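Box 3.1 — From sequence to structure: UDENN domain-containing protein
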Amino acid sequence: MSSTSPLRINGLGHARHSSAGSAFSRASSASNVSGGQVSRNLPKSIKRDTASSIHSLTSPQFQLRTEYSKPKARPLRSQYPADSPERHVEYILLASFDIDKGPTMEHQYPGAISGDEHMLAELMLPDGAHLRSEDWTIFFLHKDTTEEEELKEERRLERIQRREDREKMREAARQSGNAHAVAEIEEDTEDEDEDDGGEGPPLIYVLNLVNTKQDTTAKRGAIVKAMAVCTRHPFLHIYKPLLLLALEEYFKTPHPTTLEKLYDAVNAMDLSIMPYLNLLERQILLASDGKDLFIEKFDQMIQQKMLEGSGNTSPTREAYELTRNQLPRDSHEYETRVIYNGIPIPIKVPTAISPETVGDFSIIKLIQAFSAPHASSPQPFALHPHLTTSGAFTHPIIVLLNAVLTQKRIIFLGHNRPSGEVAEAVLAACALVSGSILRGFTRHAFPYTDLSKIEDLLNVPGFIAGVTNPAFANHPEWWDLLCDLPTGRMKISNKIEPAAPTEGLRFFQQQHSMFAPSNTGALPPSASVTGQDPVGDAAFMEGVSRAIASRQGEIVLRAKWRDYITKFVRLAAAFEEAVYGASALYIGAAEADSGSDGVSGHGYVWVDDVARARELGAHVWRVEGWRNTRSYYALIQDLGVIFSRRPIRNMDVAHQIDKLRTLKLSKEESGKIYLALHSAVNSYDEICQLLVSTPENRGGLFHLSIGLFHPDGAVRDATAELLCRVKEHDAGRHFWGSLGRFAKVAFWRIWREVEARGEASDMVTSLGASDGRVGSNGGGLRMS
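Predicted structure (token representation):
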């Protein structure tokens, strides 16, 4: 990267699969088991399962096999390889306030960032910094890297070509029936799971610390200095303790070698043991609070590193047990250390990061800041069709969500508050509305800015900015929604651009006049049926408030918002199909509706057509306001990439699971779904896709396990085989561990029935080792 680049701110059919059948074979004992001999003949581990399923696979002793094993022939790769030329931190900046010159940039290491250094110094020294002994700010830099973009485009074209070649190989392997070859080809897709989209080069994230030291010898009685790290990693909050030490040292010894030592220390940080997770694995990890999810991948990375260091073909037991201590206590974070001035600083790096997640913030804190005043003394909003989707008393957080979705200009004002507080609010708002699905918000966000940047700010459509100067509140023409952090109130500007009726609204009004809103955004006539909450936002926010009150934590709250945004996107796709005949938000509708697996259908599931029309009508203005935004077009681009890498394309797995979850199906209809899932879900990635559609916060495997009680024996067998595949999956075993005891007893009952019929002997002997499709570490079954 050039240091002189300028910057700017800112399936029917019941075929018994050998792989699943083998799971029953490995789970069985040598003799048949009769109903009265269950406890005597079951293996010990199975006895534990039927006796106490709660601890079956969640106990630490079952998280990893007690014996070490060789890594797979094809090793895992690291997220941050040790030999990567990319640096963790690209620049260290040091600015100070001079009474005569104002904010001044003192040092930049390892080289100068060209551009307006004075502007950078102003951002590093926010308004009112001298009033506090310490303050944090965050801002983003857009670095023009033409050469980097040319190389990125070349790599992107190479990936596309490799993906096309691999797709041809996969199709040929499927036609030949070579399951092992299909599994290997699908596994290779992990190397191509990179973001092909984007609106430009990656942002440079800047974390800045400002310190004020009282000094009677100084002109103003104090010395104000700021130090910042510039990084491509969105988890920039990990550098906070290092900045504290380095800036303190600089106050004592104001010499540029302090920046050099910090730069060398952070870039020496070893993250090579962090395994690379593909898109489906990241989604599973982010939606779960299991602390040992994908711990096997860390185990394998440790083994690989040991082998690379020793040159042996296998590690010794002593060395392996010693290195096992490096396994993280929580697989959501990798624990490492940075040695600065001889002091080991513990660092926790997120294993998986969702889109629009930058820094360390609290969605719970953001919700509480605006929910408490609304709950104690609700105040009506000025009506706007895009924002007040539930009327004048729409919940403030929903108003904020609608404003971000429809690309309005949003200001977070924190008068007399630390600039770090407004920055966290901006970042939390971006992450909340993203729901790990949408993107395009942080690129147009300004976690902290001031009056001197107002012209640049107003040139950005749909910005989200954090400020501390109260003058912004007096200029409603500058913003559409003002979020006042000290008071916890939001205000819709009287200068906001009105929302004009769209063709989609008019068409929906013609087709569903009873459920369509008016041209002014008034609630539809059907609102009285649902108690003035046709959108369901009031009930949703009540659930969020209960979760916060019961201290369920950030992971649970983020999962709720992920489900909310997922539902919104699927509603938007259904609205577009109803109004315009097709939707760019749903790729693969023809394949899903073809019924190749005996089932058809795609998208969101409603109980009946009336519920469908009512809910779509309530979302008309929100959907129409979102359809012409950056996040809408970015999602279309992302969905195309996601579909091209989806292992199951001829069936909408989420739609079929939702039918089991929502509808009252006949035994024939439900049987077809269970058989189709049994037929389609076999490989490691296919099971990952299934698990993404069955998150633990929505019941996990419960609705699948209902198939164990289906009146058709073939469906029961198929469901049990499917669950057995899930049980042996690295992530699936955690979902199995949370399944209720009643379902597990039914599972083992079906296994005994299969064995009693003498079918177990016809099954192949190894699920994990037969073709390596289920367990990513290539080992055999783990019984519990």
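Summary of the box: The longest strand covers residues 204-214.
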